[in-house]
Structures are given as structure tokens and as C-alpha cells.
Task: structure prediction
Amino acid sequence: MLSVRRMAAVARKEWVQLRRDPRSMVLAFALPPFLLLFFGYAISWDIRDLRLAVVDQDNTTQSRGLVEAFETSGYFSVAERPAATADVDELLVQARVIGALIIPPGFATDLLAGRDAPVQLLLDGGDANTATIALNYASAIAVDYSRETVLHGRRVAAPLVPEARVWYNPTLESSNMIVPGLIAVIMSIIAAMLTALTIAREWERGTMEQLAATPVHRLEIVFGKLLPYLAIGLFDVAVTAAAGVVVFAVPLRGSIVLLGAMTLLFLLGALGLGMFISAVLRSQVLATQVAMVATYLPALLLSGFLFDIASMPVVLRAITYVIPAKYYIAVTRGVFLKGVGLEALWVQGLSMVLFAALGIGLATAAFHKRIAD
Amino acid sequence: MPLVSLRRVRTLVRKEMRQILRDPKTKRVIFASPILQLLLFGYAVTTDVRDVATFVVDHDRTAESRALQDALTAGDWFRIAGTSDRPADLAAALDRGTAAIGLEIPRGFARDLAAGRGAAVQVLVDGTSSNTATVAQGYATRIIQEFGIAYAESQGAIVEGGVDLRARAWFNPDLESRPYNVPAIIGILLMLMALLLTALAVVRERELGTLDQLLVSPLTAGELMLGKTIPVAIIALIDLALICIVAILWFGIPLRGSIIALVVASFVYILASLGFGLFISTVSKTQQEAFMSMFLLFLPAVVLSGFMYPVDTMPDVFQTLTLLNPVRHFLVIVRGIFLKGYGFGDIWVQLGIITVMAGGVLAGAAARFRKSVG
Amino acid sequence: MNAIEVRDVTRRFGDFTAVDSATFEVRRGEIFGFLGPNGAGKTTTIRMLSGLLRPTSGSVLVAGHDVARDAAVVRARIGYMSQSFSLYADLTVDENIELFGGLYGVEPARLRERRDWVLSMAGLHGRERSAAGELPLGFKQRLALGCAVLHEPPILFLDEPTSGVDPIARRGFWDLIHALAGGGTTVLVSTHYMEEAEYCHRLILMNRGRIIAEGTPSALRAAMTEPILRITTDDAPLAVEALAGTPGVLDAAMFGRALHVVTEPSADAGALAAVLTRSGREVYDVSPVEPTLEDVFVSLVRREGGAVVG
Result:
């Protein structure tokens, strides 16, 4: 029989030790808000005011109108007006501009004659993402400009109009995407680092054997040790979520209870994994390093937090299926932004349960084996 | 301060090299892990938008509506992840995340298109991943517009012309993210290596007690720093060669600029990185503390480098902060040399800044070290 | 000129005074011991003498040079071996010798001779290529000593060199120290084994950061004014109980199956025996004995009204 009293005794001891270790306290309570603010403010995909060089060799009302259309879109700002096309090279090489718009002579004539009026857009393709977005914006601006200017006064409608609507995050705020994903990343760091810091230390110093020599059942030890970290983790999630809602105005549309339950399961799994690593390696330094590689890196790279999984090669895509953070991020985004419940997240829920069971199982097994050796 | 004794430095370098190369685990960390990480990051860090899962609700079911779907999936940007005739299924697919974009073609689509009445289709985008959403939405809009114009032209409806935007991307014509990201990964990995090998270097000896044995010898603080940095610099340069070879041969990243400039800039950058590592090592009391400090230094250095997130879109405060970050300056250099064919003439500003940083932080580490003795 | 001159040296760590105005000198060629329990300030003092730690105040002259000012000169003239085995465990015996030979600038030809000397002194011939960390502790300590004296320093600091070593290996180690001193090396050695102090030419006793006595082992013993009586009875533990609080008795402790009783100089042996007989003990023998250094140490601490740290 598991005894609540013994478990509580282990938990209390863990908490007392934790409270006395300033480094762990900083990690547990200062790091999450710092990371949230740091990432939340620093990372942004909102592309605005891309620096553009303009060479207007036509210099007509029409050519100036096109340049103005670029400027008023808000996506571009004219940063340079080199005299000759040849100067554009240098500007692009030096990254002083992201692109160059070259309007050849005869632009207005062609346009008014109803012919195709070619305009050249040179882009710095180095940063492919920015270039792609710039290209899409420029195309849209050119199409709009054609319609408004050229077809002006004629009764010709655009043949096909795509009516795009963005769900869940209509203004495409980066923070809406960052904050829910970040919670998963922060949890991975906390779970990995804290357990490596405190539990591996206990193995290092041999006090774990001391504990094992008492009548405390190993499940009681595992749970007793997990409890304080679980509490810290839940507290951190609550603080981070609240900060996300208050500071970054991220909507919380779904059920808080569901989010809490899923977080609990995810934390159990992640902490269990951290305990497992600590028990196997028995060294603070090694455990921290391995825990980082095993939990933090995948959470950052392979979870879909920042990088689109669909664009990865098939091997990496296959690996992402065993990355718990991937499912947890689907949960946080689902609950925060989509406002969905278990009907949409049952797969994730199931994987969270599996992950938690695996974490606890591994921790208990490793603990058992270590003591038996 | 007496002059540096070459013999003592050589003795120490030999000792460091022996210790590093003797341990198979360390050897793996030094030579295998950068290549593995380059492969992992090279594939995982991608801002390309490809194979976006698309859910289609086609109420029209005509040759035209099918042609539109074909046009959408013709490139490798979109793939059909599901179809249905009920809009609710589309909503559910977006909710569950099994589709990232939805296309709803209304009844009468073909009729409106043929009549030139301006047909409309609805594109629904999952905005929870902003970057993917922005890019996917842009592609979809363009493809659909072009489909409409092509259709109208095939019917002889529009002949008026208009602005013909001829875009050309320099340095990277196919607009792939990899040629931009892989050189940056080289920069990140070099710093990681230098930090890992130096951040624990002094504090480990302090913990083991061997540092005292060195300190009571005639070895000076400067000699000890040299003895600790030279082996790491050599190893980091070997790593540079290894990962550049993988980047060029495996990922096919072109190296257009000056190799000499790349080596010189990398060397200075490595010195700056290991200066930071040594500094951490001299101020830390335990290896654990050193590792944590390293993590807390490395994380913001990566975020504020322009590696995964563009510097230009950061708030001004952060943009200013990035100026203090050697990684940011090195990424400009390494990306420029690979993609844009930079030589010394193009990188001297960044190179100067990194040189000053390297000098400053190495001097700081030496001073700190001298002070911590006694 | 003395090999080491320490004037009024104090070292504080925050509020804690680890060494409190220590003053002493060490003559050339002598084995000078630091005796005291753990935490008495021995290691802190040695670290200050070898330049690893700066004194908060006071001056240290080693080989005629100020340690704080002429650190480089001093370092070339000293050897140092710390209480923890501090050679590189992952380097081989040979590589460790090569490393320290190189650091101390021993000429290659001379280093070959010194290497042979170290190998035979430490009994490591044939194990030159073993990792130092894999050697048994006694060998490690001899190797560490060898590496500390590769450059034949005139002054050698040994900080608890024998801690953790079995008694037989400890004897052997002290033979080595005597051989070095015989060759003219000044050896400053700290220990908390009281019996080891007997091997020193001169020594200081430290407690709680303060030097409480200085002299040769025999002079220190002679300075002990309180006589010690060895009493054998039928039941030693009960006898200790009976003597506690008896006037004239400063301390009574079991010593094997007998009792060592420290008395006030005025105390009368016969009266003590009477006290024991009255309490029902049978007293077989009462005789005065020579004090050990441990007795001296305890007596000195008691005289100061303090407690022994450790």
C-alpha cells in the first residue's frame, strides 16, 4: 500500500531542499517569465517596412503610382533611389535593401495601350522566407494596382477572387503563435533541468541510497519527489499563461481545466523522464546535458513550435511522432487559440496519458534497478 | 608579469590535447556531434512552406472546380489532406489540426467563372502558426488569382494586359531556406563547441583540485589561458572544416566567397566564443553552475542572432541588443561569404567588431582569473 | 636566513577568521609540522604560504621573497602537494611526470634522471603507462610527491599528505620525507595524526585558527605542567565515572584497559586511589606517565578554556 504520509514526508523534504537552493529557485520561478518575455518580444514574423530600392526610369504618373502602391501597402518602404540599375547590385550585396523595383522606360505607354507592362523586381533571396513573403506581397500589390488603374472605368471584374480568411488568429500575431508553443518549451526545460539539478545531485551524494534504506516504497519516493516539481510546473504554466493573456493579449478560448489536466500529464511524463535520466547517469553535469538534448532540443526543433513539420524530410517527420512536445503544443494551441475540447484533442490526450505512464514507469524502473545493483 | 614561456605553454597544450583526445566520449562530442547537429538542424530548421495539408469542400463539382484544385496542388506547396461536401468537416479538420488550410468552392463556381461575373472561392487558413499561415495564404491567393486570369484569357475575356511583375531572386533563385540557414548553423555550432570545451575547462580542474597544482607552479595566468585556448581553437577549426565540407557536399550549399576570409573570420569568432567560455569557467564555482551559465548565455545569443528569427522584425530594443552579440555579426559574415560571395572588403566592419569583442572578453577572462587566485 | 618567515598573518572568509595573526618561522632543512584537528586553519595557512590564497593581512616570506609580490620567483622554489590526490587521473604516470617537468622547466636530460628517481621512489617501474587514476592510493600519493619535487625545490609544502593511507604506507611516506630533509629540503607538513607529529623536528599546534604552542616535540611535552597518572582498576568505565568531578582531577579518560588521569600539580595520587576504593573499585596500580602530544594538545586547549574543533 502506498502511504500518503510517507509520500508527503519525501515531498516536504524535497521542497525544503529546493527552497534553500537559490539556483533551483531562480530556475523554477524566474526563468519561465524571463523566457516568455524574451521570446515573446524578440521573436516576430510580422514583416513590415521591407527596405526597397526603386529605379524609376519611366517617371510618369503611372510609374509613381505603382511605387506609391508599394509604399502605402505598409509592407515596403523605399529606402534607396539609386540613379542607375547597375547600382542596385551593390545595394543587394551589402544587404542595404531586401529588394529592388525597376520600372523601365515605356511603362506608362505599355500600360495605357493595354499591353503587358513589364516591371522588374529583384529580391535578395538569401533569406528565403522574407523573400517569399515579399514576393507574395508584391504580386498582390501588382494585381491590385493593375485592376484599379488599368481597368479603371471599365466594367471588367476580376475573373476569380480568393476570399482568404485566417481562423483562430485573424491578424496573424506572432505572439499568438509563440506563447502557447513556448509554454511547452519552458516546461521541457524546467522538467529536464530541475530534475537533473536536484535528483542527480542526490544520486551523486549517495543520499538516494539512504532514502531507499528506509521503509519508503519506491513509487512513494518517485511520486514524493515529483510532487513539488509538479506543483512548480503547474504554477509556472499558470503564470506563463496568465502573462501571455495579460501582456501579449493571447486569447484563452478553451477550457482551463482541460489545459490543466493535459499539462499535469505532460509534466508527469517529462519529470519522469528527467528522473530516469538522472538515475541512469547519476551526475548533475551529464544529466543536465543529456536532458537538454533529450527534451529541450526536440521541443524547440521538432515539435512544430517554430518550424513546419510538413516541410521536413520524411525521416525527421517520422521522428516527430514520438516527440511529446509536439502533442502538447497541439493541446496548448488548441485550447488557447482554437477553443477546442477533447473532441478534437483526444489523440493528443491519449498520447499525454501514454507519455505520463512511460515517464513514471521509466523513473520507477530505473530507481529500482539502481538500488538493486 | 614575466614573458610567456613557450615551453610551459607547449607542455600545457600537449596535456590538454591528450586529455581531450583520450576520452572517447569527448572525441564523439567534438567530431561526430557537430556533423549530426548540422544534419538535424539543416533539415529541421526550415522556413520553407511545403506540402501544406489542405482540406477541400467542393460544392460545385465541375471540371473547372477540379481544375482549380489541380492548379493548387500542381506545385509542391499544397497537398490534399481530405475532401468532403460538408463545411463542418472542414472546420473539424482545422480544429483537429489535420489540415492547415481549407478551400471551399461554392456551388455555381464554374457558371460564374464562365459568365465573367467574378467567381469567388473561400480560403480558410489556420493562423496558429503565423509564419506558415502568412506564406501559405500568399501562395494560395497567387495561385487562385493566376488560375482566374489564365482561365479568362483562355476564354478571350481579358486582353488588356497590366503590370507584369517579373521577379527574380538573387543568390538563391529557388527561394529555399536551406542555403540561408545552413551557413548560420555553422556559426551556431562553432560557438557551441567553443563554449562546451572551455566553459567547464577551468572549473573542472578547480573541482578536482588539479588547478591548485598548476597554480603553485611557475605557470602564469596568461600561459594557462593560452594553454586552455590553443587546443580548443585548433579543434574548432577542424570542426569548421568538417561541417563546411558536409554543408557543401551534402546540402549542396554554394561557397561563393573567399575561403581565406571565412577561415580568418571564423578564427576570430572562435576566439571570442572561447573567451566567453573561459570567462564563465573562471567565475563559476562548480561545473553545474558553469553549464547553467553557458546555457543562459547561449540561448539569448542564438535568439538574438538572426538565425531562426530575422533581426529586422524585432522590436528596436532587441535590434540594438543584437549589436552586442558576436553571433549576429558572424552570421552576416558567414552567410555573405557563402551566398553572396563576400570577401574581406565586405566584412571588415563585422570582423572588426568581433575582433574587439574577442580581445575584450579574453582580457576580461584573464583578469578575472588572475583575481580569482588568492 | 630562515626558509619561511610568517608575520602576523590573518585570513578571514567573510565573518569567519580561518587564521588569526599567525607568526612563526621555519629554518632551512628542518621538517616543520602543523598539528591540529580538522578546521584548525592548517590548510588555509599552507595555501597562503604557497601563494594559492592571499592573506587578509600580514606578510609571508618564502625563500626570502614576499609571496604576494614575487609570486613567480617563489613558485619556482617550492613544491606543493595537497591533501586530495591532485594529479591528472586521466593522464598516465609518464605523462604526469612530463607535464610537471615541463611546467617547472626541468631540462630534458635532468628530467630523464628525475623520472627514474620518481619511478623507483614510488615503486612504479613497469607502470609508466598506467593511468594515474587507476593506481592504488599509496602509489598515487608517492607519485604526487614525486611530481611535486621533480624540480628539486628547496622548500616543500605537504598538506595532510598521508590522509586516508594505511599506517604502514604512512611510515614509508615519512621515511621519504626524512630522506628529502636529509638532502637539505625544508619540509612543511600538516597532519591531524598526533603520532605523526613526533616525526617532525619542530611543530606548531593550531586550534580554531590560532597557534597555541610551538616547539620541538619533546619541549612541548616537557612544557606540560600537569602530571598524568596511569591507573589500572577492575572496571575502567565505572572508575572514569567515579573520578568525574573529584577535586584535583582535570580529565579522566580510558586508555586501553587503563585510565589516564590528568591532575592538577598539587593533586595527590593516594587520595585519588582512595576515592576509587571508596566507590567500590579495586585499584591495582597507580603510576605517573609521560604525556603524549595529544595530551599536550588537549591540556593546552583546556587551559585556554576553549573547545577542540573537529
Summary: Chains A and C do not touch (no CB pair under 8 Å).
